[in-house]
TrEMBL record:
Superkingdom of the organism of origin: Bacteria
Gene3D superfamilies: 1.10.1660.10
Pfam families, per the entry: MerR_1 (PF13411)
Domain HTH merR-type: 23-89
Keyword Methyltransferase part of the UniProt annotation: no
Phylogenetic lineage: Bacteria, Bacillati, Bacillota, Clostridia, Eubacteriales
InterPro entries named among the record's database cross-references: DNA-bd_dom_put_sf, MerR-type_HTH_dom, MerR_fam
Keywords, alphabetical: DNA-binding, Repressor, Transcription, Transcription regulation
Name of this chain's protein: MerR family transcriptional regulator
Residue runs in coiled coils: none
């Protein structure tokens, strides 16, 4: 029972969808400078949540995860483009596994 509750807390999609952080906080959390984050957004590698003209850039959970993964790969010597491509492939794989996990948990709850 405890394990099931732990898995459900990790799969709290509602929470993850609401998790939106300002660019300064993202820079502080990830260690990636705001200028670099803006550049990556200009290149289309990541995207901010649009909240109106002139509003502070804000980023959701998936984009924060991308920022962390891209920076990690760049620290290992990959170029920005190569790191972004690798991360995009990883994110697709992670999403597929995540959705299978959610479906399994939901199936088990129904039984």
């Amino acid at each position: 029972m405890s394990e099931k509750r732990d898995v459900n807390s990790l799969l709290d999609l509602d929470f993850l969808q609401k998790l939106v952080v300002a660019i300064g906080e993202v820079a502080e959390i990830t260690g990636v400078p705001t200028r670099k984050i803006r550049y990556w957004e200009e290149k289309g590698i990541i995207s901010s949540v649009k909240e109106g003209e002139g509003a502070t850039r804000r980023y959701d959970y998936l984009n924060i995860k991308k920022i962390l993964l891209i920076q990690e790969l760049m620290d290992e010597g990959f170029t920005l483009d190569a790191a972004a491509k690798k991360v995009e492939n990883r994110m697709k794989n992670i999403n597929e596994v995540f959705f299978r996990l959610v479906n399994n948990v939901q199936s088990n709850e129904e039984n």
